[in-house]
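User: Here's a protein and a ligand (alpha-D-galactopyranose). What would the complex look like?
Assistant: Let me lay out the input and then the predicted complex.
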Amino acid sequence: MLAKTPPMGWNSWNTFGQEISDTLIRETADKMVEEGLLEAGYEYLVIDDCWALMERDGQGRLVPDPAKFPFGMKALADYVHQKGLKFGMYSCDGTMTCAGYPASLEHEFIDAQTFADWGVDFLKYDNCYKPRSIESRLLYRRMAMALRATGRDILFSACNWGTDQVETWIRSTGAHMWRSTGDIQDNWASIKSIVTSQDGREPYSGPGCYNDIDMLVVGMYGKGNVGLGGCSDVQYKSHFSLWCMMNSPLMIGCDVRSMSDATREILMNREMIAVNQDPEGRQSYMIPLGGVGDDGKYADSRVYVKPLADGGYAIGFFNLSGEAQRQSLALWDLGLPTAAGYGLKLYDLWAHKEAGIAREHITHTLDAYDCRVYRASLVRL
Ligand code: GLA
């Protein structure tokens, strides 16, 4: 079974857009191993849009652009596989990809076979230039079937940006992850609007098919294709923690050849990754603390609670606002009345140390944009 836990890897789009090449992918593969990203769980290396020539070949197959990929995709996939990584590619269910390259509509079975022949292990499948007359549900079913027909295990990453009530039908198509938002940008406003748009989606994510809230912008610092503004390290830490709590696939989007120390520390926080990769695969529920936020619509101060396979919980406190906030969570709101005689033993996943036993409340002040995430286990008082 694929995607038992949220898929992890790297994708070319956020930083590189159309500036992709054989050299970039080989260097990225080398770095993913050298830096310990593969060992931390980031196993899929995915080439996004803009890799193909504009014309198919005489047999109707997609052709990698020889100016970008002079040795073809099979040789590149072999290189990536030799490094111990898995290899991913991108296509789209319409007449063209989002960036205007040839896409797979009416070519689904031949394209799936081409990807399988090259050694592709992951296919991201977009939704641009889809004829209105055909439902995207049918086209995702079709590509899922075409991938199955190849006999190769290919993780199917559906990307229709949360439209067409996708959460209600995507798991049944055979997809392993599904984009539930528009495209992320490297700034806090984008991260916050993605997070707050997900309230209510919690039931639609779990082993075999995860709710994908888009690729990470951690470590981009405003550089690259979606690097519109950049974030501070505190914001990147909270962004990563939210993606872990919300069960999202963790697809790195920065240039891993030049990561800062802070970027390494965030992306390779094993204790946070363990929360994301917890085998029970439950998405957290959200408790708003205090009233509505600065736009009058949602709480800026919120707690996410994720039940874990060891019988405990991950509890993440987030301050989405630009002002320090005092937060107090009543354990009652997690289902724990004082009379039950239990407390929560806390371990801080960013400070990497024990944080005492909470009896009735957890109270603290969080700086602007900051977060605090605990692993909590029930203990008898
Ligand atoms: C869409 C997707 C992005 C990226 C681009 C490529 O916008 O949502 O993630 O794949 O297409 O053109």
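Summary: Residues 13, 48-49, 97-99, 126, 159, 161, 183 surround alpha-D-galactopyranose (CB under 6 Å).
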